[in-house]
Amino acid sequence: MADERKTGTTKHIIHLSAECYPVAKVGGLGDVVGALPKYLQQAGLQTWVVMPWYNKPFVRMHEFEVVYTGSFHQGSRPLEIQVFREKHDVLGFELYLVKIPGLLDRDEPYGYMDESEQFMAFQHGFLHWVTQMGITPDVVHCHDHHTGLVPFLMYHTDRFVQLRQVPTVGTVHNGQYQGWMDWNNAILLPPFDTWKWGLLDWDKVINPLAALIKCCTVFTTVSKGYLGELMEQANGLERLFAMERAKGIGIVNGIDTAVWDPSSDPMLNQHYRISNVQSGKRKNKALLCEAYGLDPSKPLLAYIGRFAGEKGADLLPEIIENISTSNGVDLNIMILGSGDPQVQSAVAYLAEKYRGRIFAYIGYQEELSHRIYAAADFLIMPSRVEPCGLNQLYSMRYGTVPIVRSTGGLKDTVRDIDEDDGYGITFQQADAADAVLAIHRALELYNDGQRMQRIRNQLMKLDFSWTKSATEYVTMYHNIAKK
């Protein structure tokens, strides 16, 4: 396979990730890895995505070929490995799945007791495959802690010495999750230079995210704002990010505008574009409200996302109760999400209490999310931590005004309507009171029909595609490959 690589100035980039949409997606990581490589491929880079094999519909519905079969030991455990390639490059890049019976053959990416061993096998299996096949890419790009040990293994084990000169990029999608594991797991790693144990360690445990930051050539964050925030709030790694800040680059995420396009989105019943955004959104809202028992004549506020503390989801019950009992406020609220059981129960209770004004879908449904973006007037994101945020980008693409707490990527991508050329509504504190005030501002905007139409038109003209961000990645790849 090594002879299939393009030559000349074109570079060969391998992305390693636990998720990739539409193969397997839990959050924004899957969306990014499903989109960025396609844009890199279009920019002239030979781009691969390598991820674990999952028992998912995408895998069953597409044609794969086996490109490698072998075995290796993880500690004393012998593991069989197969690598599959999707034959027709339907995603716009080459997709490879690593299958290891008992570890990388599961229904879901996360939630297993042996998750550390699971992702260690993915990283070990990837390196075993490429070295056995003589594949030497120009850059290996590792996403989040699930692939965080790869740079260390490339640079500090004799088993993978042929990759020692290959530069690596580590992208931090969410610094709150770090893949901590006890030092007892070190026996599962390939033999390494024990003098280098400190590169794996942080606070007396093996910390894959810390190892990624220490060992990679360059690390990126998914927005410029988040790069700075990691030095102040990174779940214990603040000092490390400050120490390594010289090799950090903030590049804001984009969205795949072929997938997220209200003029052609196959998940919508009514398509629209800038020229008919008002009528298009009105028709989509009517259809959605009819399906879920809401009144289409009222403004529609939506929340889409995980019920997690970092998303500010625990504030939702208080926000809903407050806004639902405010004098003179009459709106619909639609919630799509799952996670914290207490938040789920509280949201479900309020949806029943205010039936006909609030609807909650506990879980996640991709088609419903698209329909909500197209129908909603406003999307609220009361996040405590938001490395980049994609939901606000999707909402703006569909002419839906974002209401966001000004943090991380939300601060980078949403400009308040009271600023020059502003197009969103921002608030500063991660509390229900500030969020409710922002919602009242949103309703004032809604009641000013001409201004609301102007803002919608402005939103749909914004360009948050991957094109600009992909160009920044291409420049970075070329710079580190030269070095």
UniProtKB/TrEMBL annotation:
Major enzyme class: transferase
Task: Name the UniProt key words of this record, in alphabetical order.
Answer: Glycogen biosynthesis, Glycosyltransferase, Transferase
Can you state which reaction this protein catalyses? [(1->4)-alpha-D-glucosyl](n) + ADP-alpha-D-glucose = [(1->4)-alpha-D-glucosyl](n+1) + ADP + H(+)
Q: Where is the Starch synthase catalytic domain?
A: 12-240
The name this protein carries in UniProt is Glycogen synthase
Identify the metabolic or biological route this protein is part of: Glycan biosynthesis; glycogen biosynthesis
Binding sites annotated in the UniProt record for ADP-alpha-D-glucose:
K25
Record-linked InterPro entries: Glyco_trans_1, GS/SS, Starch_synth_cat_dom
Q: Which family does it belong to?
A: Belongs to the glycosyltransferase 1 family. Bacterial/plant glycogen synthase subfamily.
Q: Does the keyword Transferase apply?
A: yes
Described function: Synthesizes alpha-1,4-glucan chains using ADP-glucose.
Q: What is its EC number?
A: 2.4.1.21
Q: Name one GO molecular function term.
A: alpha-1,4-glucan glucosyltransferase (ADP-glucose donor) activity
Species this protein is from: Parapedobacter deserti
The chain positions of domain Glycosyl transferase family read 292-453
SUPFAM superfamilies, from UniProt? Answer: UDP-Glycosyltransferase/glycogen phosphorylase
Spell out the HAMAP family in the cross-references. Glycogen_synth
